[in-house]
Amino acid sequence: MKRITAAIAAAALLAIAVVTSTDAAAQEARDRAQEARNKQIAIDFYNAAINEKDWEKAVRFIGPRYAQHSIYMQDGPECIRDLVSRLKEQFPLNHGEI
Prior knowledge:
Elements: H1 2-51, H2 55-58, H3 77-90
């Protein structure tokens, strides 16, 4: 009886390990896919704002609470709009590489 109980317990632990491993692998795949989507959004925003200098296209990527990552600019979408405008006017041929 002890052997049967031990075998059942071992089988249950193995089943839990397989399910947990499968869940972790599935979550990792979802995380990688989300990371790829986020990366593409950032690249598309950069290209629209900096390279194409197209505010109407760039603004689609900005929410109402835009947090600026430069210490030289304030937060908010209007600061990016002003930057795009200045780049378009003063540096129309400027192009950045990612």
